[in-house]
Amino acid sequence: MKYKFVHSFDMSPKEMIKIQKQLAKEVKLSHFSDVPNLVSGVDLSFQEDEGLAVIVTMDFKKLSVIDVTYAVDKVTLPYIPGLLAFRELPIFLKAWEELEIEPDIVFFDGQGYAHPRRMGIATHASFFIEKPTIGIAKSKLIGKYEEPGKKKGEFTFLYHKDEKIGIVLRTRDNVKPVFVSPGNLVDFDNALDFTYHFATKYKIPEITRKAHLYTKSLK
DNA sequence: GCGACAG
DNA sequence: ATCTTGTCGC
């Protein structure tokens, strides 16, 4: 991978923020014009000081699971809003090394561009795996938005300091929306289209939902 | 100073 | 994220 991960335990929050600001300069919200073939969804679960990361790979068109990979490791950092990537990426990257498949896009459970420094976990991860990424969060971290219509498919944009940073998407009728944002190497249209493609009958799009289901059953 | 705050 | 039963609503 292009970037080496600096272990979080010998870093202070200030140093982590410095790294985020540096990486943020390299974010490219460019359009991904191909139709994805294989995509992966990532989710983690924790117990005590151990974390489990699961990567589920699906066929984009068939919406079928074709591979499940995971890794377990000790966690060294507590959850700190804005610094989630430093807590979860080390374990994810361990699982990523086990992956024998090359997905076209990788979805994360959390924010992408919709972050104080535009470096949510999905965006941050892209610099290590060098793949387009998208963030699907169950709640927002920052920003303001108008409530989207109550029907599935309706959406509004999330803004921060007058800049569009994400999409508030209704994936089911009368159910709280999810917060979608491009991670890196995809644009807002891609993030919305690709995520909505996985909005079947549940609030959480199938790609991340499947990962979450495996994360629970594997422990 | 106060409120907000991904997982 | 995690700890957890019943319960309201489509």
TrEMBL record:
Cofactor: Mg(2+)
Database matches in Gene3D superfamilies: archaeoglobus fulgidus dsm 4304 superfamily
One Gene Ontology biological process: DNA repair
Keywords of this entry: Cytoplasm, DNA damage, DNA repair, Endonuclease, Hydrolase, Magnesium, Metal-binding, Nuclease
Any one GO molecular function term: RNA endonuclease activity producing 5'-phosphomonoesters, hydrolytic mechanism
E.C. number(s) listed in UniProt: 3.1.21.7
Function: DNA repair enzyme involved in the repair of deaminated bases. Selectively cleaves double-stranded DNA at the second phosphodiester bond 3' to a deoxyinosine leaving behind the intact lesion on the nicked DNA.
Full protein name: Endonuclease V
